[in-house]
Amino acid sequence: MRTFRRALAVAAGALSIGLAATACSPGNPDSQAGGGSGSADRITIGTTADVLNYNPLVGNSRTDTWVTNLMYPRMMSMGMDGVRSPYLASKWEYTDGGRKAKFTLRDDFTWSDGEKVTADDVAFTIDAVAKEKIGVVAGLISSYQKSTVISPTEIEFQLSQPDGTFLENVGFWMPVVPEHVFSKVGSVQKFANDKDWVSAGPYKLTTVERGQRYVLERMENFPLIEGGPKTKEVVFRVFPDVNTEALALRNGDVDLIANALPPPLAKTLEGDSKLKLVKVPSLGWAHMQYNTAREPLDKLEVRQALAAAVDYEAIRRVALQGKAVSSNSSVLTPTLKQWQDPSAKEYAHDPAKAKSLLTGAGFKDGNGDGLFDGLSLRMIYDQADPNISKWAQLVRDSSKAAGIEIKLEGLERNTYVEKYTARDYDIYAGSWAIMENPPANLALAFKCKGFINYANACDPELDALIDQARGQLDQAGQKGPIQQAARMITDKVYDNVLYVEEFTIAHSAEWSNFLVQPSELLSIVNPVSVAQATKG
Predict the structure, then answer these.
(1) Banded model confidence at residue 24, pLDDT cuts 50, 70, 90
(2) CA-CA distances (angstroms) from residue 411 to 1, 414, 419, 429, 506?
(3) Is 12-51+201-274+509-535 assigned to CATH 3.40.50.1820?
(4) A Pfam family matched by this chain, by name (predicted)?
(5) What are the residue boundaries of the structural domains of the chain, listed by start?
(6) What does the angle CA 319 – CA 320 – CA 325 come to, to the nearest 5 degrees?
(7) What's the CATH fold of domain 285-501?
(8) Burial degree of 488 (CB within 10 A; 0-12, 13-18, 19+)
(9) Alpha helices per DSSP H over 386-474
(10) Which of 43, 91, 158, 313 is most buried, by the most CB atoms less than 10 A from its CB?
(11) How confident is the model at residue 82 (pLDDT cuts 50, 70, 90)?
């Protein structure tokens, strides 16, 4: 669930010049298998990173997910509005007042070694996640107690309390792994799963050449595509950055770029008739979180002043070049229309109000330099993220006009992750990739000691509203308390939501029939999309 950052792009002018120039893509060890397909037998996809984890329960990078999603099924898929749809599971329901939950599985999924995919695989997977506390999924299933396999296609879960988020959390976030393989390895969390892959998806990984390519071959018996996947082979090629990917796409060396294009680069490709640009809405949001466990950010007036100091429209217009929309400063975003609160309004950019709030809270300009004493704050961000690197400067400048000094600290990705995980910052600038289930997501991000509560928010009233929503078994019952919770997050500035991005994914115009899903992580590089894509 953590954000997946895009490669650093150079300035728009340099992009235009670079793409117009004649250039070659990186060396290809096997032009037949690694370059553009030249036929419908192969689709070649560009990425900017190697696979780090082949274990789908552990992997957390975009490339990890794109590759393993093609092999390990999930119970549910997702529509453009975030609403779940069947995948491995054909139906699901709560019973016993929400203390029990049940999945019914399709009976036509088969692992590539001939074993059937059954409820035993689901039971093994969820027990491993719960026992070893593997990843975000473990945080999403806190109510899980045990599972009972009723039949090869039926599984029932016992919950510690009614939890209306459980089925959707398990259904969408938990990839199912083969029990007959993973049960033999000891610790599932430590299992590398880096060879002899067994797949129940549309493709199976067969060849790995780190830094170069990952080759997956078609599984003829994939039941969600009539007649099996349309393309025999999927090749992920690794490039040093998104600009090199774009050159390879224009040269015909790749058919699709998996990662979203930075807005300046997207604009340079808009007029190319050989390409198609697909618009994909984000399921998350870009934001700033203020560390409420630190002075002076523990003061509501300071957080409100920081919110008033930001020029939100300028960020969307300049840094995102219009490829983003307002979320009205709400964690209930426009993508999830079924959850939106019509009363939500964006924080107004009002430097005078910010100064008034700070003066009322006792802050003074003792040096006469236009800056309030005691308000020099450090903001960390991933320096490789081109969008955030731009808007961080805009935030710094507009905050200075409100009398607040913000010192920017652009960090290398791993250092950045370490800092925000340890809550070692004043202000954290970043983005969520997928926040598609508000009752579950708000529990993780805003409840006291929540798994990803990086703002250190701890508000018993907010916790009670989130718990009330989670205890309801349908959206109708969840919507009221979750909208109240969202309003409280806005009012108390536990999160400053800046925008919801509109991603641009580029592919060769020779390819069609992709299935678009929301978020950069799913986009058109989701299993059904890749499996049903056709050339010509």
Answers:
(1) very low
(2) 20, 8, 9, 11, 28
(3) no
(4) SBP_bac_5
(5) 12-51+201-274+509-535, 76-182, 285-501
(6) 130
(7) Dipeptide-binding Protein; domain 3 (3.10.105)
(8) middle
(9) 386-401, 413-421, 438-446, 460-470
(10) 43
(11) confident
